Amino acid sequence: MSEPIPAKTGQLYKYCIYTANGGRVEHCDPYGFQMELRPGDCSILTDLYSYKFKDEKWMKNRTVGFDSPVNIYEIHAGSWRKKGEGQTDWYTYIELAKLLIPYVKKNHYTHIEMMPLSEHPFDGSWGYQNTGFFAPTARYGTPDELKKFVDECHQAGIGVIMDFVPVHFAVDYYGLKEFDGTCLYEYPNAAVGESEWGSCNFMHSRGEVRCFLQSANYWLSEFHFDGIRMDAVSRLIYWQGDEARGVNGTTLDFLKVMNQGLKSLHPTAMLIAEDSTNFPGVTKPVDQGGLGFDYKWDLGFMHDTLEYFQSAPEYRSRDYHKLTFSMMYYYNERFLLEYCHDEVVHGKATILQKMNGEYEDKFPQARAMYLYMMAHPGKKLNFMGNEFGQLREWDESREQDWDILKYPLHDAFHRYMIELNRIGQENDAFWHDYDPDNFKWLDCHQEERCIYAIKRKGKNKNFIAIFNFSDEEQE
Length: 475
Hints:
Layout: E1 12-13, E2 15-18, E3 24-27, E4 43-44, H1 56-61, E5 71-75, E6 82-83, E7 89-90, H2 93-106, E8 111-114, E9 118-119, E10 132-136, H3 143-155, E11 159-164, E12 168-169, H4 190-193, E13 200-201, H5 207-212, H6 215-222, E14 227-230, H7 234-237, H8 249-265, E15 270-273, E16 295-297, H9 299-310, H10 326-329, E17 335-339, H11 351-354, H12 359-375, E18 379-383, H13 408-426, E19 439-446, E20 451-456, E21 463-468
Parallel strand pairs: 5-8, 5-18, 8-11, 11-14, 14-15, 15-16, 16-17, 17-18
Antiparallel strand pairs: 1-4, 2-3, 6-7, 9-10, 12-13, 19-20, 20-21
Helix pairs in contact: 2-3, 12-13
């Protein structure tokens, strides 16, 4: 009989599983707190409680932000900046904190949203196809170093939100797929078991899956994240995200129970839904018949504004009410306005590139669009690079084109965005987004002239924004 091997921190391990049909498979620990960097696939024994947070004041005073400024800077940790010769190496969580925190403060953002940090094998999945749902990716360091990153953000007055993926998982052999030789976590039927991304869909009717996905609570509890943005919520509402297939009752039940539990444990943490459907009550509490999120991304606002500013001014009278339509449904949910990573990849062009006109013409268009976004009710989110007019689509393998700031138009645009964010952060007229008395159309019927006027009401100061989106000077 072999002697037991004493367990110690840093030790690599796997599970060896003998299946019912006589096969043998090896998997990483689904609940492991640390993993090797790809292509390694071992789990690592970790002391989860060695780091001591120093953010007591932040955690005590933290709020969901309904009546305070929320302006989120979304980043991909591996491509915001890179280091080394040829700028090919990742910054660690600790190194990133030293660069990112001053930048976020200077640019007057209130929160950082990190694209998924749970371990994943393929860089090109951006973290949305996981193998380690409890393990921070080793690309940027250890669990303790991620805790220190969040801690230092908090001490600097910055909140940190993490993307969370409750819908699907990576198909790599050492992950969750056919864990015991059978479809344990996923659907056995490929028609519903395989996602549009080629990954495996979780079978949320199973108790073990529901328990496993309480990893959402783990990230909020152990790493002090200030919220989670749940990816692909439409796939939790409808079968395969397709309204024609009908509501998926088991996934909705799972979502409600999880959100209700998270809010009871973390009442001041943000729960944010990335949801493209019109399903009602996404941001209503569960006990009032809703899904229990605090915020929902307003994807309709995003599409309508970008389409409007892509069109030539002579067509904007035709499209005039693309900009007013969002306020027709705005008070149905607590919406968050976003220009996220999905809008600057896969041939869609960057935000600045989308603007109508030649190179020089695009900057005043983008300035006007972002001013309209600030004047419009709703919390805000902007993806890295948008703030200085990135002209190359985002690529996870390359850092942002920081050298572009040496060009006067880009530098001036960046300074404009900093000032716009400052005004939004310092004036409460832009915070009380869900109070109908806070917003008023002063004029939204100048279809031929493409003029709009908005009033935002604050306690001590009101703001009026007047827009001329035609190509003519007007009195």
